[in-house]
Amino acid sequence: MAYVGSMISRPPTTVERSTTIANAAREMARTGVGALLVVDNEHLVGIVTDRDIVVRGMARGIGADGRIDALMTTEVVTVPAGMGIERAYEIFRDHALRRLPVLDGRRIVGVVTVDDLLIRCQHELAELTRPLRDETFAPQHEAAAPVVVGAPAAGAVAGTVAALSHSAVFPHRIGVLRAHPGDTLIVHSHIPRTPDRLGEIFDVRSDVGDPPFAVRWADNGHVTFVFPGPDAEVRHVPAGAASRQPA
């Protein structure tokens, strides 16, 4: 379980309750925060935001030399650093808050915000969808060697490969897929309006040109070893145009 304390990325920004409004505003500008924790002898007594300074201060004619505790919210909802993040979601939802001071006992350790939770959600969604994205748009995984049970005769295996290679299920595959450095690997896209993925093959693992191949992809320059699937084909370099010796 992830805890609220793990989301704190910076120390809290605090001011004493006797701080003037002008100095509090300067502290906000200096630290780049939109809220200050107001303390009295290091104990939390309130919270004040930039909006409080405008609405409760300037709009009501309170001068910049007034004390910041005249503008602060005193009924502050706090959370312990060891509380689970899921509970923080519930508190934000139930209390319509944007910020929660985080305490370790009575010691202030930081502030967690709605923005922090949104960023965390975005990162989690990105991690969740990254494998799907990579598989869809940039297949780069190496397939494991097939496990043969019963060790069929070599002729039977060759016949099966040839049959699959010419099957209508794999329309782009013609014969056994082999390549040499300089050839182009094409991974055909099955997504409408999504282009095929092309890359230059510059290394081949076997002497006969069998996969996997080291490919430099044309769209982003990323280099990886791949074991092409049935949606791939090799465009060979014309004879004499480049070396065709396997790596």
Short description:
With 247 residues, the chain is α+β, with helices and mostly antiparallel strands. It folds into two domains: 4-118, CBS-domain (Roll), CATH 3.10.580; 171-247, SH3 type barrels (Roll). Helix content is 27%, strand content 23%.
Question: How is this structure best described in words?
Answer:
- With 247 residues, this protein is an alpha+beta fold.
- The protein folds into 2 domains: 4-118, CBS-domain, CATH 3.10.580; 171-247, SH3 type barrels.
- The protein is built from 5 helices and 11 strands; from the N terminus they run E-H-E-E-H-E-H-E-E-H-H-E-E-E-E-E.
- It has a 5-stranded antiparallel sheet with strand order 10-9-8-7-11, with no helix packed on it. It has a 3-stranded mixed sheet with strand order 1-2-3.
- Strand 1 (14-16), helix 1 (21-31) and strand 2 form a beta-alpha-beta unit.
- The two termini are 48 Å apart.
